[in-house]
Amino acid sequence: MNDLPIIPILATLLGGLAFWLMLPRGTARGRGVGALAMAMALGLAGSQMPRVGDWLDNSVFFILAAVTIVSAVAAVTFRNPVYCAIWFGQMLLGTAGLFLFTGAQFLAVATTVVYAGAILVTFLFVLMLAQPEGKAAYDRVSWEAMLAAATGVVVVAALSMIIGRTFAPEGALYPWLGMPTSQQLAANVLTPAHVARLGGELFGRYLIAIEVAGVLLLVALVGAAVIIGREKR
Amino acid sequence: MHLLLLLLEPLLKIAVVIGGLMTAAAYLVLVERWMAAWMQDRLGPNRVGIPLTKIRLFGLGQPIADGVKFLCKAEFTQEHVDKALFLLAPLIMFITAMAAFAVVPFGSVIPPDIFPASWGIKEPIRLMVAPGLDVGIIYMFALGSIAVYGVVLGGWASNNKYSFLGGLRSSAQLVSYELPLGLGIVGVLLASGSLRLDAIIGEQARTGVWNILTQPLGFLVFCVASFAEAARLPFDLPEAEQELVGGYHTEYLGIKLMMYLVAEFLHMVTAAFLLVILFLGGWHLWGLTGAGEVVTWPIALLRVIVLLAKVMGMILFFMLCRWSWPRFRYDQLMDIAWKVMIPLGLVNLIVVATCNEFGMPLARWMGVSAEWAMMAAGWFALLASWLVVSLLDPTAGGNRPRHLRPAEAIPADWEAQS
Lengths: 233, 418
Description:
The complex is a heterodimer.
Chain A: H1 6-22, H2 31-47, H3 55-77, H4 81-101, H5 105-130, H6 137-140, H7 145-166, H8 182-188, H9 194-204, H10 207-232
Helix pairs in contact in A: 1-2, 1-7, 3-4, 4-5
Chain B: H1 2-39, H2 62-72, H3 83-99, E1 109-110, E2 125-126, H4 136-157, H5 161-192, H6 197-207, H7 211-214, H8 216-229, H9 241-244, H10 254-279, H11 297-322, H12 330-366, H13 370-392, H14 406-409, H15 414-417
Antiparallel strand pairs in B: 1-2
Helix pairs in contact in B: 1-2, 1-10, 3-4, 3-10, 4-5, 5-8, 5-12, 8-10, 8-12, 10-11, 12-13
């Protein structure tokens, strides 16, 4: 038991507490303390991250990661729904940046187009049209602050346990997680013909899944057209 | 030291692109004003020359005067706006408009042998800021979809009902026309087999057949959609002050308004670049520029000149269109997107995909080359869909109330009835 990862555990618990303090619970008390504690928790967690590559790689990674996490926290702790949506958008851009950093170019731009460009804009329309003033009390407090913080702690702990284990000391990646080896990565992801490889996989190995998803979307589209068409008559 | 050298090339390219674009945008505004004057039979800006002298120089000093005026305006922010988002919205618009040029090739390559040997440059330098990105065209789409935030947030943050409605109107326009824009591009991507803009030019140069010759319908759809995406007339509802109290930037002034206007202008420049690169062969010109990757420096220079000349021609076409048509009504604008352009884009996609799959055996059977077969199919598709659209006229009266539609409102024997 003496190899208990004390710092990650501490960081996760502190982060959970900070998160609970920062959530809009109907009172502004403790928000500043919460922000401070969150910064400390993120610093602790960041100190445990493995350093890969030279200092330039590291600084790009840590800046992107910090932007992503800070925007994610802000997206759930801000009280104005429109601001929450904007922070969420910045979190998506940070995620896309992380994808780009690891060489998954298509995933990066697809995340931006689909989530930031299509889904979140629809959210924004709804938020702006539903409450132009944004003053309703029930939209400005989080309902289950304690439960949310606890769930966050559990998810972060479970994920960091699983992902932490995949970085074995000798750098070998565990095949049971479906993680690719570095040779596979170099052959499939980090090639100049990145998109061609991806397309080959999608329309070769995963053809049926793609087709099923396409048919599902088509059914939804036809259904929407039917519902709209009925109203006119 | 090594790191500095590594960063030097992209930083130089970024500096050249930003400086060039800003200057070009300023002077293109002047060209547009000259063109407006010419179309409306006036003189236009011709007085501002070299500052503090009496030299007029055909009005070439006008952009500097305009810029200084914009910069020196009082930086006034209204009381009722949402301050943070009011500033953020034009920034988003401006940054995304600039960032799109990261994947645009401004020519082909600079050959390594024009530099002194001591510099140690072995590889030809590609004339684009981010040559390593394999998803160039989707990256531009991603930035275009982010630009919608600038519009909708600008309208919302102004805290003004007219601005908000204008923001919704414009963002719905942008979102709608993204679909025909994408459909117009997919045909080109199918034909050239890459998402990289330089590879698309390379393919057109290799075959010697520009995409506009094989896919005229795709060109039409993409051209109309890029007019709408750039909010150029006849799609420029944000500029409709008299009818609609403007659009999302009604409340803006000074440098923030300038950011919006420059961003819109850059959208037009981007659209011109895309039209030239995707459909008009990029730097390729028959018999002049060659087609290969290895070039001597006169050919490299010639390619840059050809590309920029084509882009300039396209921009002049945009400006000519501005004073040739009246603005669309909003329902007409939406009808054109959903009822005309998207079906036409689908037709083009089907034709191109069929030609790609079956064109080769068919052409061999008919005894012509595959390029000629594709061209015949493409132009036939254009003429056939033109005929169908003009016969069916899907945009007529779609958004009128039912009791006012001609067929139902006026019976054939209305005189006898009354």
